[in-house]
Amino acid sequence: MMNMNRLIVSRTFRIGQRLLGCHTRRAGQEELRLQQRRSIKTHCRHLAYSKKAFFVLQAEVFPYPEIGNDEVEEIKQLVAPVEKFFSDDVDSAKIDREATIPLETLQGLKDLGLFGIMIPEEYGGLGLSHTIYARLNEIIALDGSIAVTLAAHQAIGLKGILIAGNEAQKKKYLPKLSSGEHIAAFCLTEPGSGSDAASIQTRATLSEDGKHYLINGSKIWISNGGMADIMTVFARTEVEVDGVKKDKISAFIVERAFGGIASGKPEDKLGIRGSNTCELSFDNVPVPVENVIGEIGGGFKIAMNILNSGRFSMGSSCAGMIKKLIELTSEYAATRKQFNKSLSEFGMIQEKFAMMALNAFVMESMAYLTAGMMDRPGVPDCSLEAAMVKVFSSEGGWICVSEALQVLGGLGYTKNYPFERFVRDCRILPIFEVLIHKCLNSEGSLEPIPAVPAEAGYTLDRTGKDGVVHPSLEDSAKKLEQNISLFGSTVESLLYRYGKTIVDEQLVLKRVADVLIHMYAMTAVLSRASRSISIGLRNHDHEVLLANTFCNDAFFKNNYWMVQLQKHSPENNDANIKKIAKQVLENRAYICSHPLERTY
Amino acid sequence: MSGRVLVGVKRVIDYAVKIRVKPDNTGVVTDGVKHSMNPFCEIAVEEAVKLKEKKLIKEVVAVSCGPQQSQETIRTALAMGADRGIHVDVSGKDYENLGPLQVSKILAALAKQEDAQLILLGKQAIDDDCNQTGQMTAALLDWPQGTFASEVSLEGDKINLVREIDGGLEHIKINTPAVITADLRLNTPRYATLPNIMKAKKKKIATVKPADLGVDVTSRLEVLKVEEPPQRQAGMKVETVEDLVVKLKEAGRV
């Protein structure tokens, strides 16, 4: 079952530990000691899960992850040919128009080594870190179809083998997958099971001789489905638990060569048209028992782990795309004149550029913070953080592309410019892999929630301690602190009010999740900006500006959401919203009488 | 003919970057600007690697003269297939004043030291457009030169070359050892694939100083001023040929 036995509340109390306090400055010196804060142990009684503290890296959020000089050099070297390939040899308009990626382009990607970025070198891959993977994705994201094809292959398609496969499976399958000779696909979704992944119906039954499983069922929306040679398929299997027969999901490595697999025709999609998406049907497909990934019955957990591990790069993908959009649109805004002024002199246009810059900044900060955490040895899993990055980036990305198109007005709406393609390609972001948003919303669900501790008067004690945030960001840090403390008490009172039924209150959970995401974002930008100032990166003043602006904005948004979460809050329209929805859905139509009707 | 080929690679400002002149007019802005391997040098490296793949030569050695960052350029050459690199460390004022004469002296010294059979260079660098290094190196070594090469083929211990010249194409045959400079249509350089970049990390780059080679890098040239080209003025349209002649006379052009 879903592993979301984490409670936000306890975690948030731990956040207090990281509090970004005031840095006691040494005489005149800006020398910042970016060392870890001593963790303040908050006495928390929510120990139901004692797993990782929220924000995982209780210590790892500050300082911002640093990579060695060698790695910086390496990244520069690796990025150059990929950038060149994408600018010279990738015709995105053609890929979109013809709804297919040309074979030469695909081969070029394979030759560059982009099909096995994170597969260890011993299996033929590049063995690169999460950080470098995220960096490369900034470039790959410039073409949505290619990005999805590559991600479906390595971020989820073959991930199962990588993280849960045994040595024999890795040796057998990874080398050809690294070179791109074989392409992988992730087969979980079915016509009747999208977000509710646990309800899949595809079945795998053990053959009489016990040597094969026979898989029967159908999957839909499978990226790379039409061309994949190796698929990670999830199916129900019968297991015995304490003498009782139950159905549990298992994961299998299925080769198209096993026979019995048919792919439907490619879906005609709004965006990412070059990415192959289709239905797959499995008719008594024989899968050797050696191809079970992990243990029989352990499939759901593997699916969750796979999805969790690939998510983080969406932040850098979106950031890369937004940065490109800023370049493309600013050229136009600076030269196009109306009312005798160039567009860039108008407030609303300026707002759009500021918004794009802020979004790119936050997404970058969050993505690389998360990737850095994931790269650290022995750090517990960062799935919550990766999920937050994903949600923020997919929603922010969608808004930014829309605004970028708006800047170009009519021109942006035509196919002569790439903006409409970016808009169409981005629309998928909030749709796929959304399982996590729901998960984010239902955290705290499955564990019985013990009584909320009486930490109501929780104080964030950090006066006089070594601050980890630069003084120019102090105000923002204080705002974050305030948010955190209010959050703690807000969640407490929510749990009092709802108890376990809070899992069903989506509108409440949505706000909780949004506040959480914004707080993580604030932490990420403060951490990053502090580092930039202290090491003197070029344009760090601009970063401080961005960080403070974002934090200011997020602070008020968070407060508003939290106010809405209070009991009987007049700002909260949820009850009415639900009523409206109920009446509309009952009638399956808009129910008001037409304003022109008469009764007399 | 088997043996060693020296390929010179230069780190220059990337061709796609908009160049800006420094406010003090002493040069162009290089700080924080994207740099990459000179495109003609890429073509030279590609040719060398091709020769090695055809087993006509044994080893490709990439050479670059410049500061620490030049090693990045050598690494790119290694990722394209060169076997090892030599970084001639020149930095600061010496680097700013480094020109074809000094580089050709260095290359000549290295060719002797490494017992090279062939030196492959790009025809010119896109930052200074000197088009002199290849020629000077050949002269210093007293070797034949094949410049502006658009086709190279080895025949025993001789080289058949097609040169792109103003009048068309010139076919020549030269002895080895020789210096060849690559022109645009010689080949299409390969991408340094990511797996090759990773493999290249294991290849060696040796560092030497010009003094070790007995070369004096002091420059005989002094840059007085660097300024932007004059802004292009708008043209003028005239109705008749007579008007045109009048205007030309006014401008003192006729």
From TrEMBL, chain B:
Localization recorded for this chain is: Mitochondrion matrix
SUPFAM superfamilies membership:
Adenine nucleotide alpha hydrolases-like
Q: Where are the transmembrane segments?
A: none
Could you provide one GO biological process annotation from this protein's UniProt record? amino acid catabolic process
**Mainly resides where?**
mitochondrion
Origin, by domain of life? Eukaryota
Instruction: Tell me the GO molecular function terms.
Output: electron transfer activity
InterPro entries associated with the record:
ETF_a/b_N, ETF_b, ETF_beta_N, Rossmann-like_a/b/a_fold
Q: Which GO terms describe its cellular component?
A: electron transfer flavoprotein complex; mitochondrial matrix
Q: Which keywords does this Swiss-Prot/TrEMBL entry list? A: Electron transport, Mitochondrion, Transport
Q: How does it assemble?
A: Heterodimer composed of ETFA and ETFB. Identified in a complex that contains ETFA, ETFB and ETFRF1. Interacts with ACADM.
Function, as annotated:
The electron transfer flavoprotein serves as a specific electron acceptor for several dehydrogenases, including five acyl-CoA dehydrogenases, glutaryl-CoA and sarcosine dehydrogenase. It transfers the electrons to the main mitochondrial respiratory chain via ETF-ubiquinone oxidoreductase (ETF dehydrogenase). Heterodimeric electron transfer flavoprotein that accepts electrons from several mitochondrial dehydrogenases, including acyl-CoA dehydrogenases, glutaryl-CoA and sarcosine dehydrogenase. It transfers the electrons to the main mitochondrial respiratory chain via ETF-ubiquinone oxidoreductase. Required for normal mitochondrial fatty acid oxidation and normal amino acid metabolism. ETFB binds an AMP molecule that probably has a purely structural role.
In its UniProt entry, what is this protein called? Electron transfer flavoprotein subunit beta
Q: Which organism is it from?
A: Neolamprologus brichardi (Fairy cichlid)
